[in-house]
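subagent[fold] <- orchestrator: predict structure for attached chain, return tokens only, no commentary.
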Amino acid sequence: MTPAATVGVGLSAAVVAVEGDRPLILVAQPPGGGKALGLPSGSFDPLRDRTLEIALRSSIAEQTALDVGYVEQLYTFGDRGRAAEPGDLAPHMVSIGYLALTRRPRDGAALAAAGAAFRPWYGFFPWEDWRERRPDVLDAQILPALAQWTAEAPEAETGRALPRLVRARQCFGFDGAPWDEEKVLDRYELLYEAGLVEEAARDGRPAALGRAALPQLGAAMRDDHRRILATAMGRIRAKLKYRPLVFELMPRQFTLTALQRTVEAVAGRHLHKQNFRRLVEAAALVEPTGAAETATGGRPAQLYRFRREALEERPAPGLRLGRG
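subagent[fold] -> orchestrator:
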């Protein structure tokens, strides 16, 4: 008789902050240690925890000494092979991923004492940062490897509605197709399927095990955590356009230059200064405080704050950035 399967509920959070022009993700040692760094995570105990979010916030506080602000649920991740070691018979954990936003604390001593730290998120996804130029890793490693993988595709792929070449074109801009900054998860999933990321080899995927060597495509994370981070990145990039999430990452008073740098950091692309300011003005999301910033030593810059009334004035108060 086959024993009954045991399933637990895990909670993982992609905690995002921005410092200057660097988007950051909070990483933490897992309870008990012994694994690579990943996202703050814990388990849901229905006898202890009244809600999933309360359990999540408790886990974040315990592992990072950080009290986060905005939190939203992303997705439920249930694949067995992407969170278990080969031959593992432990209960299967269904992981619920969350996006959390915070202002980075000035004193990192408490984080360090808890074994946590903020790391640049483009260290995990170097192909996603288009602010200065087209990322070198695309033409040097990713596109040649995907071209070979698409050329080796069987005539019919079981369970796939679209052939490899079409999916590669949609995700990575093959043959001049446009780059969609929101498809962070789609791109990571394609690289995983093609066996080009370390997690695919760790999980025993044939496409990865059949390669003599893997390209260096960003830092790996434990379990399914880079997949959860990709989901969070795509979510926040999409919501910038119709929700004022960016202000959860800003201090209470800020310059328009600082606001633009934060939006660019998260979106992964450069925005024309005058066009951005017109967008901000048209959206009516900020108002002047009457004060100015003089710390730069140059011409004083006007300080602004978020207009919370915008949340009541229209259903989708965001920055209509359009496509990159």
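orchestrator: received. Logging for downstream: The chain is about 30% helix and 20% strand. The chain has a mean pLDDT of 85.
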